[in-house]
Design brief:
Blueprint (H helix, E strand, L loop, with lengths): L2 H15 L9 E2 L6 E2 L9 E6 L21 E4 L6 E5 L2 E6 L10 E4 L11 E6 L6 E6 L5 E6 L7 E2 L11 E8 L17 E7 L3 E7 L10 E5 L15 E2 L6 E3 L8 E6 L7 E5 L11 E4 L6 E6 L10 E6 L7 E5 L8 E9 L5 E8 L22 E9 L7 E4 L7 E2 L20 E4 L5 E7 L14 E9 L7
Antiparallel strand pairs: 1-2, 3-31, 4-5, 5-6, 6-7, 8-9, 9-10, 10-11, 12-13, 13-14, 14-15, 16-17, 17-18, 18-19, 20-21, 21-22, 22-23, 24-25, 25-26, 26-27, 26-28, 29-30, 30-31
């Protein structure tokens, strides 16, 4: 039986058996927040921070809820103006943002009881064409649970399968995309206009599975690449997958490949993949790389942590590809003009022609950002850096970038930010990544965990406060 026929037969079987600058002067109303009348004009961006509600300690005395929000993801619904924010076991509907001051927003806990029961890794994704939001939890026992909501968390529909059989291990990613049907590799979508993809890694490989019924069930996954532990060129871990909103091309960014960067591309709905190296790139320790795709022109923006500093760390670099990864242009180091020497957690958001933004946390102190004392090495001096959240903008396909410190008076972390995974001795309270989307004004909305909510706490507190940063005026990523 051919691979295509096997997928089709499996599908039929499954379907039968399943179920902080100055505020602007002029303001106008929005269902989400009050936005300046100059919202889509150029000029320095204005940012506001909105921290989540205080939460009681859990039964073991540990932080919970919005106080334990490492690795957050979010989605913005332009029809309602709501932001859905997910981290750990909690999902929040956030609304009522006040553009004139920080921390004035309403956080409603809309956690689904099934999705909130346990977590190994959470992920949230909103389909931009339908506004359906998917929430997925990697279970401690292996495998995933998934549900979706079409009403911003008022009700949920549970998937029969949270992910594909036999491939779930770590750091799952969920995305939707248009079907690319020229080759007829998979059946057409049923009951939902887009395919839903579930990608994950085990210790040895990266895999992606497809759902043709809106994420209720998934077909058997396909291999993207073998990991470095089994002779492949790349780390098994990867950043969040993205799709081209025009033609459905799928992009997956590994955590480094033989000391450089590579982007894997599928033009047939994850059935097969091609890897494209990024010339003159290096592989630092800033966490997962990030990719996004322009909605009008398909321009690909790829951001990663470089090795242009000491101790294997460095600034975030970004490059643009006009042809789906075959060639790369305009590689730039971000934050150098502001004195940033080391960075973490790059995220990309691509808008209309030539416009994109990259966010990251950065510090200006030399040294090893992973360094922290421990019981076995008490004399190690902790990294002395103070980390702020930065946002860089381009309007010319990455030929030039302008970077802004979005939290100049409220650091995200004081001390080390460790990216060595479970081997970290300290400083891993923020975990491994942040998230960013674009609102209906073309402004960025960023989810991050705040390790210093008042700006005074250091890494020893182990804080990870759920926080949304909103751009409320300044440059728009959408053409007006």
């Amino acid at each position: 039986m051919s691979k295509k026929a096997a997928h089709t037969q499996l599908w039929r079987t499954v379907t039968r058996s399943r179920l902080l600058v100055l505020p602007a002067l002029a303001l106008l109303a929005s269902p989400l927040l009050t936005l300046p009348s100059s919202a889509s004009t150029a000029g320095a961006p204005v940012f506001r921070q909105y921290h989540g509600p205080a939460a009681p300690l859990d039964v073991r005395g540990n932080a919970s809820g919005a106080d334990d929000a490492g690795e957050p993801t979010l989605g913005f619904n332009p029809k309602t103006g709501n932001v859905l924010f997910m981290a750990n076991k909690n999902t929040y509907r956030v609304h009522g943002f006040d553009a004139t001051r920080n921390d004035k927003a309403t956080w409603d806990d809309v956690t689904d009881p099934v999705e909130g029961a346990q977590t190994s890794d959470p992920i949230l994704y909103r389909d931009p064409t339908t506004n359906r939001t998917f929430v997925n939890q990697l279970e401690l026992q292996g495998g995933s649970l998934q549900a979706y909501t079409d009403d911003d968390g008022k009700t949920y529909t549970h998937s029969t399968m949270g992910g594909s059989i036999g491939v779930a291990f770590d750091h799952q990613s969920v995305v939707t995309g248009k079907p690319v049907l020229e080759g007829g590799t998979y059946p057409k979508p049923v009951g939902y206009p887009n395919y839903v993809y579930y990608c994950t890694n085990d210790l040895y490989a990266a895999n992606c599975a497809i759902s043709i019924d809106g994420g209720l069930n998934f077909l058997v996954a396909n291999l993207v690449y073998q990991g470095s532990l089994t002779g492949g060129p790349c780390a098994a871990l990867f950043g969040h997958i993205k799709t081209d909103p025009r033609d459905g091309t799928v992009y997956l960014p590994p955590n480094g490949c033989n000391g450089k960067q590579m982007l894997f591309v599928s033009r047939d709905n994850t059935f097969s993949w091609t890897g494209y190296a990024v010339p003159n790139s290096t592989d630092g320790d800033s966490g997962h790389p990030a990719v996004d795709v322009g909605r009008q022109d398909g321009a690909v923006y790829y951001a990663w942590g470089s090795k242009d500093g000491d101790h294997g760390t460095g600034r975030i670099h970004v490059a643009m590809s006009p042809d789906k990864g075959k060639t790369w242009l305009n590689q730039s180091a971000l934050g150098a003009d502001l004195g940033v020497v080391t960075s973490r957690f790059p995220v990309v958001a691509a808008g209309d022609k030539g416009r994109a933004a990259v966010t990251f946390i950065g510090a200006k102190a030399e040294g090893d950002p992973n360094a922290a004392p421990s019981a076995t090495s008490p004399n190690i001096k902790p990294y002395p850096g103070v980390w702020d959240l930065y946002v860089s903008y381009t309007t010319d396909y990455g030929k030039t970038w302008k970077t802004y410190d979005a939290t100049p008076k409220d650091p995200v972390q004081r001390g080390p930010v460790c990216t060595a995974g479970t081997t970290c001795l300290a400083g891993r309270n923020l975990l491994d990544f942040n998230d960013m989307v674009i609102d209906d004004q073309g402004h960025v909305v960023i989810a991050y965990a705040d390790g210093s909510p008042t700006g005074k706490e250091d890494y020893t507190k182990g804080l990870a406060k759920a926080t949304i940063l909103r751009q409320v005026s300044g440059p728009s990523l959408y053409a007006r």
